[in-house]
Amino acid sequence: MIKEKISIIVPCYNEQESLPIFYKEITTLLEKINIDYEILFINDGSRDKTLNFLKETSEIDINVKYISFSRNFGKEAAMYAGFCNASGDYVAVMDADMQDPPSLLPEMIKMLEEKEYDSIATRRVNREGEPVIRSWFARKFYQIINKISDADIVDGARDFRLMKREMVDAIVSMGEYNRFSKGIFGWIGFKTYWMPYENVERIAGETKWNFWKLFKYAIDGIVNFSQVPLNIASWFGMIMTVISFLFLIFIVVRRLIFGDPVAGWASQVCITIFIGGIQLFCIGIMGQYIAKTYMETKKRPHYIIAETNKKDVEKIK
Ligand code: UDP
Ligand code: MG
């Protein structure tokens, strides 16, 4: 028997169809590995029978713990609640829809046991079944964020990973309101092994993501982990000032040589609109950062727990 205890954190939002399948698979597997475990389900304000399933299951299985939010706070908040309350020496995050194959776990546990790595993370090596345009944007996003931030994020990285206690404590200490876990995992460092696997389709229910939500998520990730967009705004400002100065010299010289023919109305309008556009764009970039700062300064809780079967849980955090 492995002496460490493992906590499996499972964020669930309307997963009544997938949960029974997931629960069965994961328990069979963990029993087989012969490891002490808890499965910590976070019910993220589901509107279906997810909570009923969790309550019933926890009554017959002492290894099942659940935390139920007062409303839908999002997967990031659910994962944070999991990290804050997981008691294991090893902690894993897994989706309830079987897209994070439980069959990878034994190998991941074995690798952590060998002590060479602090964390085993997973990445999908193919994006089959995904719209082409979405894959393209996803790939660009990873290229950009790796160039402009400290958070090193691998293309195709999933949230599914197994970590040691030290790493979990570091994640819990990052109490920011705007959470982007893929960035946080990379930012805290530690030795991570990236385990590749073939993409798996969702077993039941439907994804909570659409293109625009993903696009917003990508922008959030960049704003949370990089100041480069702000620098771009300043550079735009400087370049524009230089150009306008050159233009001024040009106009003065032309006036001295050719007199003052009234012309150029159209070009004037183009220039005004162009500069106006750039100004608004830069203000927009600043706005993104101000909005994040605003939310951070409010110090609102990440989540509110309505009920749980776990002891000593901070209800509002
Ligand atoms: N999830 C959650 N809160 C949300 C949205 C999703 O807890 O607001 C959970 C969901 O139940 C699932 C995991 O996060 O276990 C991943 O969600 P999904 O399968 O929709 O994302 P995808 O796999 O398509 O990226
Ligand atoms: Mg999924």
Would you mind describing this structure in some detail?
There is one protein chain. With 317 residues, this protein is of the alpha/beta class. Helix content is 50%, strand content 17%. It folds into two domains: 6-210 and 301-308, Spore Coat Polysaccharide Biosynthesis Protein SpsA, Chain A, CATH 3.90.550.10; 228-298. It contains ten helices and eight strands. Strands 7-5-6-4-1-2-3-8 form an eight-stranded mixed β-sheet, sandwiched between helices. Helix 5 packs parallel to helix 8. The longest helix has 34 residues, at 265-298. The model has no long low-confidence stretch (mean pLDDT 90). Uridine-5'-diphosphate (UDP) binds at residues 11-13, 15, 44, 72, 74-75, 78, 95-97, 99, 202, 207-209.
What's the structural blueprint in terms of helices and strands?
Elements: E1 2-12, H1 18-33, E2 35-43, H2 50-60, E3 64-69, H3 75-85, E4 90-93, H4 105-113, E5 119-124, H5 132-148, E6 157-164, H6 165-173, H7 181-187, E7 192-197, H8 211-225, H9 228-258, H10 265-298, E8 305-308
Parallel strand pairs: 1-2, 1-4, 2-3, 5-7
Antiparallel strand pairs: 3-8, 4-6, 5-6
The structure holds uridine-5'-diphosphate and magnesium ion.
The site of uridine-5'-diphosphate (UDP) has 17 residues, from strand 1 and helix 3.
